[in-house]
C-alpha cells in the first residue's frame, strides 16, 4: 500500500507544476496559461520543464502555434484530470464561502484614478453589502494577489485571453489646459508640436506589461516623426502628467475614456483634431479562481458603464 504521507510530500513538491501542466492542457498555449497564472511565459516554461524532469518524461511537443501532448503527456492528463479538477473545484468552493463578502479589483493607477474612483459611489451602491477592495499599481498583472477577483489591464489584442472583455480601445489625442491653449496660439498641426518639443509632457513607465503610447510613436503615426524628440519633462505616472497639464504646464497625450470627465468639465481641451488609434486597449477579466455571482455582477457593471 502506498504511504499517504510520502504521496502528499511528493505532490506538494510538484503541485504548482502540475497546475501549470493542467492549465496548458486546458488552454492549448503557454502564453494563454501564463496570463491566467499572472506569471511570465518563461517562468511557465520552466515549471513545465521542472515537471518533465521530475517524472523523467517529455510531456509536450512545442511548435509555432502552441503545444501538443506527447503520449506520456496524454497518459498523465488522463490519470489526473478528473481528480485534480474535482479537488480544485472543491477547494475553490470552500474558499469562496469564506471570502464571498469581498471583491478585490486589481487595476492600474490611471484607470483607478480617472475612471473608477469618480464612479466609486455608484459601484458601492451596486455591490450592496459586498466590500470592494481596489488594489492600484503600475502593472496590475505583476502586483496581482491571490485574492484578486477582477483584473483591469492594458494589453495588445493579440495578448488577451478569450475570457477578457475589451473596455476601451486606445484612442489618443494631444491635450492641454484652456489657459495653455490661449497662451500658445498657432499649434495647429502635429508638425507644429515639434516646435514646442520642450513643452511636451512625457510618460516613462519601464517594466510595465504593455507600453503606453509615447510622443515619438504618436507623432510618427501622424507622419511627423522627428529625428530626436526632446524629453525635458518626464513623469513616471499618468496622474502626474494630467495634473501638470491641468495646471497649464505643457501638452500631454490624452487617452479617451480616461480623460472624458476632464474634457466635459473643461479642465482640459483637445489641442488638435488628430487622434491615433492602436491595437492596445483596456480589458477586464475575472481571475481564474473567482466565479462568484457578485464578482460577475461587478464585472458586468463596469462593462455596462463603459458602454453607456
3D structure, described in words:
This protein is of the alpha/beta class and 308 residues long. It folds into two domains: 4-99, Winged helix-like DNA-binding domain superfamily/Winged helix DNA-binding domain (Arc Repressor Mutant, subunit A, Orthogonal Bundle); 102-308, D-Maltodextrin-Binding Protein, domain 2. It is 45% helix and 22% strand. The chain contains twelve helices and ten strands. The protein has helices spanning 4-27, 30-37, 41-55, 71-99, 109-116, 120-127, 178-183, 190-194, 215-221, 238-246, 260-264, 293-307; strands at residues 60-63, 66-69, 102-108, 131-137, 150-156, 165-176, 201-203, 233-235, 252-255, 269-286. The strands form three sheets. A six-stranded mixed beta sheet has the order 4-3-5-10-6-9. Strand 1 (60-63) and strand 2 (66-69) form a beta hairpin. Helix 1 packs across helix 2 (30-37), helix 1 (4-27) packs across helix 3 (41-55) and helix 2 packs across helix 3 (41-55). The longest helix is centred in the N-terminal third of the chain and has 29 residues, at 71-99. The N and C termini lie far apart (62 Å). The relative contact order is 0.14. The mean pLDDT is 86.
Amino acid at each position: 500500500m502506498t504511504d499517504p504521507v510520502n504521496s502528499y510530500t511528493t505532490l506538494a513538491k510538484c503541485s504548482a507544476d502540475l497546475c501549470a501542466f493542467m492549465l496548458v492542457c486546458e488552454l492549448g498555449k503557454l502564453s494563454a496559461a501564463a496570463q491566467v497564472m499572472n506569471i511570465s511565459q518563461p517562468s511557465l516554461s520552466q515549471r513545465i520543464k521542472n515537471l518533465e524532469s521530475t517524472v523523467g518524461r517529455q510531456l509536450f511537443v512545442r511548435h509555432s502555434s502552441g503545444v501538443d501532448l506527447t503520449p506520456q503527456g496524454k497518459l498523465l492528463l488522463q490519470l489526473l484530470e478528473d481528480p485534480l479538477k474535482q479537488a480544485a473545484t472543491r477547494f475553490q468552493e470552500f474558499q469562496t464561502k469564506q471570502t464571498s463578502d469581498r471583491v478585490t479589483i486589481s487595476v492600474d493607477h490611471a484607470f483607478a484614478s480617472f475612471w473608477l474612483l469618480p464612479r466609486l459611489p455608484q459601484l458601492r451602491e451596486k455591490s450592496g453589502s459586498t466590500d470592494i477592495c481596489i488594489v492600484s499599481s503600475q502593472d496590475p498583472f505583476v502586483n496581482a494577489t491571490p485574492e484578486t477577483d477582477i483584473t483591469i489591464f492594458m494589453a495588445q489584442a493579440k495578448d488577451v485571453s478569450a475570457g477578457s472583455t475589451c473596455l476601451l480601445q486606445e484612442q489618443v489625442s494631444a491635450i492641454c489646459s484652456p489657459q495653455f491653449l490661449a497662451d500658445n496660439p498657432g499649434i495647429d498641426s502635429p508638425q507644429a508640436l515639434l516646435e514646442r518639443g520642450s513643452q511636451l509632457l512625457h510618460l516613462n513607465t519601464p517594466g510595465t506589461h504593455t507600453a503606453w503610447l509615447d510622443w515619438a510613436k504618436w507623432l510618427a503615426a501622424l507622419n511627423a516623426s522627428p529625428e530626436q524628440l526632446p524629453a525635458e519633462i518626464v513623469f513616471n505616472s499618468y496622474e502626474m502628467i494630467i495634473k501638470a497639464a491641468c495646471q497649464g504646464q505643457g501638452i500631454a497625450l490624452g487617452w479617451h475614456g480616461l480623460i472624458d470627465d476632464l474634457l466635459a468639465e473643461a479642465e482640459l481641451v483637445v489641442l488638435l483634431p488628430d487622434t491615433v488609434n492602436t491595437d492596445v486597449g483596456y480589458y477586464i477579466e475575472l481571475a481564474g479562481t473567482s466565479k462568484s455571482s457578485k464578482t460577475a455582477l461587478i464585472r458586468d457593471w463596469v462593462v455596462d458603464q463603459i458602454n453607456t
